[in-house]
Design brief:
Chain lengths: ~350, ~375
């Protein structure tokens, strides 16, 4: 198994620009699609991460988001519906030095690919998954998805969906992902920061990106992105900082130790002060608080968290595997039986 | 080139067919396998899981056969030789990725240890009911190669050959065992590494920019490859694509892509097809058989000869592509073909099609669960020569 090919010493890396990561093919996404903003952020990020262009692989499944590798100037694999994480797993296990990005959507990752998704997360393979969540099937023109909200009217749920949706970060946390984050297509600067952290993380990396589908689910995230409501609706999680939000950061998230729940407090009201507010720590081994934060999403009376829920260091599946291989090789020796038999005092009878 | 001596278990062994497949894969240079446990095939990956780390290889158990059968494709595009192993129900799940391997021309080996079906069927008992599925199971039009070992020795030989053929033609190759061949234990001779011919992956010598991943190499129908990290910007897709690998969803691109992918098998069929002929001189009937059924047919032929039948044998080693020319030629010389198989008529349909009425085709069918009674085959032979 080759582990040496294609690696370029960091010092020898050429200076890349954003353009080096553009394939030159014009994206065929609808005008106004959130995917444009995401690919723009990814292409802006890649020159700065210190990885040789040819060592970066983009792998996708099927759906609008999955056209992504076509527009990137890297090694691109456009695989099958839901299966990108499994394809990526095979590639990563055989070539651990490559940096793998899986680009997927809510239908691709969580419906047809749900099983592969959770198992890829639990293995802690060093794979970065970007899930564009538009809460609809866009490529097939508007059917209910596993993240469509309860009551959603779509072409296949004309009377409203009776299915409860997945909460993707909560699902990823439950599956054991070591990096879980969320950003929004319209928040370019925020997404850039989240993506940079994702690029730096080693292990199963899940980033949900709220992405507007202007044709089949327009306005899905206006509750979060409209100027008038943004401050109240977004909870920006930043490591080491109190979880404050609202106009002038007057509100905060407090852990109520009596009810063991998160609650919203307004600073200065009912005796609430800033030191009561939970300080964000995505590096806790225990994912419980991260899970509680993930579950605030779309909950009446609560802001929707964006940023990094969890970022913990654990040996990756690759690390553990190669340890096994190296110890087995050392124990059994890299010597063939024939070489062994014909070594030392042996001769051939003609 | 010769096999890498690391991992080649040169010598005489007492091995079952499943384990012999594992050794064939290792000798071929396979260093990655993904799988999901399923009877009666699991022994193949169990042995790989134990043997691989010592030779620098890696086995990963996946969440299902869907994942396993596409993880191997990921490993191949990273430069590894890879195999996945399954039986009927898992083979059904893998059809999706056999199609992806076909359209992306990905050299990979699938091993199917057949058991009784349909559905869950007979997990621990033999059948040969997946022969047409191996050929046609994934949607759309494609051609692949399928091989049918009839002994643990051939499990080694043909698994090795499967890897070589996969590299030669950039196609998925399926090794079609059955439960009996997989579980029978016999002598297996593994030659020294310097006597084992291994086909390396054909990487291009063209520069990035000049190289097209799906353009047939000069004087060939088969394109060369690159692997991730070699500095080539490539795009691989399950969509109909042009020579660069970019989606090209139009009639011209479809026609060109599908026809070349067919041609690389059809036009090379004579080089791919292998078979075993015995006692054909003066034969009035020919038994066409494969896998475990060919071993039972030997006894059937012996019984029929004792009663005066002039019978010869034609054993399929390559099931797909099918030895069309040979069957057509034989059909001009004999009274009948006798085709025993552990299914309700699959390869016998192919024989009958090619015989085209020039001689009779007598299928000897068995729904599976055990092997034929040789006397039933003998009776069919006697009827054939009557």
């Amino acid at each position: 198994m080759s582990t040496t090919n294609g690696t370029t010493a960091a010092a020898a890396l050429p200076t890349y620009t954003k353009k080096d990561f553009e394939s030159g093919v014009d994206p065929r996404w609808c005008p106004g699609c959130g995917d444009f903003s995401i690919i723009n952020q990814v292409q802006k990020l890649l020159p700065s991460i210190g990885v040789a262009r040819e060592n970066i692989v983009f792998i996708s499944g099927i759906g609008c988001s999955s056209r992504f590798p076509y527009y990137m100037n890297n090694y691109g694999m456009h695989t099958l519906h839901g299966r990108a994480p499994s394809f990526a797993s095979g590639l990563k296990l055989s070539r651990p030095e490559l940096q793998l990005w899986v680009v997927t959507g809510d239908g691709d990752a969580l419906a047809i690919g749900g099983n592969h998704f959770i198992h890829t997360m639990r293995r802690n393979l060093d794979i970065k998954m970007l899930m564009f969540n538009n809460r609809i099937y866009g490529l097939t023109k508007g059917q209910v998805s596993p993240t469509s909200e309860l009551g959603k009217k779509t072409k296949t749920t004309p009377y409203g969906s009776a299915d409860y949706p997945f909460n993707p970060p909560a699902l990823a946390l439950g599956a054991g992902a070591t990096f879980v984050a969320r950003s929004v297509d319209l928040e370019g600067a925020h997404m850039g920061v989240v993506l940079k952290s994702a690029a730096e993380h080693r292990g199963s990396t899940f980033v949900e990106i709220y992405q507007n589908c202007p044709v089949f689910n327009d306005g899905a995230y206006t509750f979060l992105t409209e100027k008038a409501v943004k401050a109240e609706a977004q909870l920006r999680m930043e490591e080491g900082k109190p979880l404050l939000f609202g106009k002038d950061n007057r509100k905060g998230i407090r852990f109520n130790s009596q009810s063991a729940e998160l609650e919203v407090v307004t600073l200065g009201e009912k005796g609430a002060v800033e030191k009561d507010v939970l300080v964000h720590n995505p590096r806790r081994d225990d994912p419980t608080i991260a899970f509680m934060l993930a579950n605030l999403s779309n909950r009446p009376g609560f802001p929707t968290p964006i940023g990094i829920f969890r970022a913990v260091k654990l040996p990756t599946c690759d690390d553990l595997n190669w340890k096994v291989i190296n110890s087995a090789k050392a124990k059994h020796g890299d010597v063939s039986l024939r070489k062994f038999l014909s070594s030392a005092d042996t001769w051939t009878v003609e | 080139m010769n096999a890498d001596p690391i991992g080649v278990l040169t010598g005489s062994h007492y091995l079952d067919g499943d384990h012999s497949c594992s050794e064939g894969a290792i000798a071929a240079g396979c260093r990655f396998s993904a799988g999901y446990p399923i009877t009666p095939s699991t022994e193949v990956v169990e042995r790989l899981a134990s043997r691989f780390p010592r030779v620098g290889g890696r086995f990963q158990q996946f969440e299902d056969e869907l994942a396993a059968s596409i993880a191997v494709l990921g490993a191949v595009w990273g430069g590894a030789k890879a195999v996945t192993v399954t039986s009927g129900p898992g083979f059904s799940l893998m059809m999706e990725h056999i199609g992806l391997a076909a359209i992306t021309e990905c050299p990979v080996v699938y091993i199917n240890v057949q058991r009784g079906g349909p559905s869950t069927g007979l997990p621990t008992q033999p059948a040969q009911g997946d022969m047409m599925q191996a050929r046609f199971g994934s949607h759309g039009d494609y051609r692949l190669i399928a091989l049918c070992p009839n002994s643990p020795q051939e499990c080694f030989d043909l698994t090795l050959r499967a890897f070589n053929l996969a590299e030669e033609y950039r196609v998925p190759v399926v090794v079609m065992l059955d439960e009996v061949v997989g579980h029978m234990t016999e002598k297996v001779v593994i030659p020294p590494a310097d006597q084992i011919e291994v086909t390396p992956r054909r990487y291009t010598s063209k520069k990035p920019g000049d190289f097209k991943l799906f353009e047939a190499a000069e004087g060939s129908l088969v394109p060369e490859m690159v692997k991730a990290g070699d500095g080539y910007r490539v795009h691989v897709t399950g969509l109909t694509h042009d020579e660069r690998g970019y989606p090209a969803m139009n009639v011209v691109a479809q026609d060109k892509m599908v026809k070349r992918q067919f041609a690389k098998i059809v036009e090379n069929a004579d080089k791919i097809i292998t078979f075993e002929e015995k006692n054909l001189l003066g034969a009035e009937a020919v038994v066409v058989s494969f896998g475990i059924t060919s071993r039972i047919a030997e006894k059937g032929m012996q019984l029929a000869r004792e009663k005066g039948a002039k019978v010869g044998s034609f054993r399929l080693i390559t099931a797909w592509p099918f030895p069309e020319k040979q069957i057509i030629e034989l059909s001009k010389k004999v009274k009948a073909f006798v085709v025993p198989e552990l299914n309700m008529g699959q390869m016998s349909l192919e024989v009958e099609r090619l015989a085209a009425g020039r001689c009779r085709t007598i299928p000897v069918l068995h729904a599976g669960g055990t092997v034929h009674n040789p006397e039933v085959i003998a009776e069919a032979i006697l009827e054939a020569v009557r």
